[in-house]
């Protein structure tokens, strides 16, 4: 399959489109034109949907080459692996575990990285290898080290890179450990989401270096953070945009079954029931989830969809001591809630939501992160840490202490 250079469905066309929208910095346009995305995309893909979330039906290059080509040169993420490679066949698996990221996201993160020619860079999450190749074009392959935890993906990416004459250091292993043998690095970039920035990365980064990574609170949602590393080995920086990456495998959350929270009983079990005027839909948008999630440590959310637009929003803690639910139905002004355990999780959500409203509904770019052993999210500047709500304290109308 080929495409004319001036068409949108081509490396040059994609680069031109991204440049026109402001997503692609002019410094990176030569790399996007010289390193075609299709070199690093397998025959079978599941394109992300243009609207909403999830993946469209599989497209096989061998039977539908035109549709495959158009998907590759659209601004969509392409799922390329399910269930850590255990799933086979054309139907989607349970959990996507590798993808070729959306080109606007790739371009934005590379712009955040501010990678200059000759800089030494560590990439965590080789995946299919496209981002690795872009890094090689920008700074020189001898300066690129990339780590992939999945042996099959690492071998596939290594082969594709070599076929294109690129021989960066391609390692198979635990990306959270970095690669001390090649340290120190001027830049570190992760293409998988993190619950915490590994201390090994900070130790392998030069002073004044930059780390770009997707970071996610327990609650859900996620954003790209651009961190500057200090002389003392700490880091701080702002979030630049929302994101949705697959979690670093070594930091995946292992959810406990809902029945364990309910003690084996049917809902509402021993919960206290009531109503709320805060609609679950009000706390559902992705960026809003982030603003709430950074205030709710150890809490995660999950919607259970019912019929005709109704759903039950579940809140659970990581310790399997507390849970809450809120039932949404269209057109209602009051919503049924239930809460159980020492943490009153819905009350905490309401407190976090009120704080966000009081701050003027700040977006993701208003928040930042400081890593000084622990991770502290702040609003505006590092002197303004966001509250950490904890309803087990005697007077929890005020934010919890750091140790709560």
Description of the molecule:
The protein has 404 residues and is α+β, with helices and mostly antiparallel strands. It folds into two domains: 11-242, Rossmann fold; 258-358, Bacterial toxin RNase RnlA/LsoA, N repeated domain (Double Stranded RNA Binding Domain). Helices cover 22% and strands 26% of the residues. The strands form three sheets. A nine-stranded mixed β-sheet has the order 7-6-5-8-9-10-11-17-18. Strands 12-16-15-14-13 form a five-stranded antiparallel β-sheet, with no helix packed on it. A four-stranded antiparallel β-sheet has the order 2-1-3-4, with helices on one face. The longest helix has 14 residues, at 345-358. The chain starts with 10 loop residues before the first helix and ends in a 25-residue tail after the last strand.
Task: Give a summary of the structure in a few sentences.
With 404 residues, the chain is α+β, with helices and mostly antiparallel strands. Helix content is 22%, strand content 26%.
What characterizes the major β-sheet?
9 strands, mixed
Succession of helices and strands: HHEEHEEHEHEHEEHEEEHEHEEEEHEE
Helix tally? 10
Which word captures the global form? globular
Uncertain segments of ≥5 residues (pLDDT<50)?
1-6
Structural class: alpha+beta
Distance between the termini: 59 Å
The CATH class of the largest domain: Alpha Beta
CATH architecture label of the largest domain: 3-Layer(aba) Sandwich
Q: Keyphrases for this structure?
A:
single chain, 404 residues, alpha+beta, Rossmann fold, Double Stranded RNA Binding Domain, 2 domains, 9-stranded mixed sheet, 22% helix, 26% strand, globular
């Amino acid at each position: 399959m080929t495409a004319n250079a001036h068409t949108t469905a081509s490396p040059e066309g994609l680069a031109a489109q991204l440049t026109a929208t402001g997503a692609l910095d002019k410094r990176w346009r030569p790399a996007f034109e010289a390193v075609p995305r299709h070199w690093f995309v397998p025959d079978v893909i599941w394109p992300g949907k243009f609207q909403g979330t999830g993946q469209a039906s599989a497209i096989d290059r061998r039977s539908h080459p035109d549709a495959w080509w158009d998907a590759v040169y659209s601004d969509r993420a392409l799922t390329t692996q399910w269930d850590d490679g255990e799933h086979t066949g054309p139907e989607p698996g349970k959990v996507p575990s590798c993808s070729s990221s959306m080109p606007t996201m790739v371009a934005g993160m590379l712009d955040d990285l501010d990678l200059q020619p000759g800089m030494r860079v560590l990439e965590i999450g080789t995946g299919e290898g496209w981002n690795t190749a872009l890094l090689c074009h920008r700074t020189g392959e001898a300066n690129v080290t990339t780590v992939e935890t999945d042996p099959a993906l690492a071998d596939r990416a290594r082969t594709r890179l070599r076929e294109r004459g690129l021989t960066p250091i391609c390692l198979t292993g635990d990306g959270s450990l970095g690669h001390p043998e090649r340290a120190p690095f001027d830049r570190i970039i992760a293409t998988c989401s993190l619950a915490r920035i590994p201390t090994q990365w900070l130790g392998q980064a030069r002073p004044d270096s930059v780390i770009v990574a997707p970071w996610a609170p327990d609650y859900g949602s996620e954003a790209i953070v651009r961190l500057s590393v200090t002389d003392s080995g700490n880091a701080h920086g702002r979030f630049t945009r929302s994101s949705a990456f697959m979690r670093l495998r070594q930091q995946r959350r292992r959810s406990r079954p809902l029945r364990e929270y309910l003690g084996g009983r049917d809902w509402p079990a021993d919960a206290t029931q009531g109503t709320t005027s805060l609609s679950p839909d009000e706390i559902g948008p992705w960026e809003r989830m982030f603003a709430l999630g950074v205030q709710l440590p150890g809490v995660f959310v999950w919607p259970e969809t019912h019929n005709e637009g109704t759903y039950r929003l579940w809140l659970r803690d990581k310790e399997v001591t507390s849970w809450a639910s809120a039932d949404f139905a269209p057109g209602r002004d009051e919503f049924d809630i239930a809460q159980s355990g020492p943490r009153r999780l819905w009350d905490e959500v309401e407190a976090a939501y009120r704080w966000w409203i009081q701050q003027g509904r700040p977006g993701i770019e208003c928040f930042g992160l400081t890593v000084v052993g622990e991770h502290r999210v702040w609003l505006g500047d590092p002197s303004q840490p966001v509250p950490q709500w904890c309803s087990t304290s005697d007077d929890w109308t005020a934010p919890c202490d750091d140790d709560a």
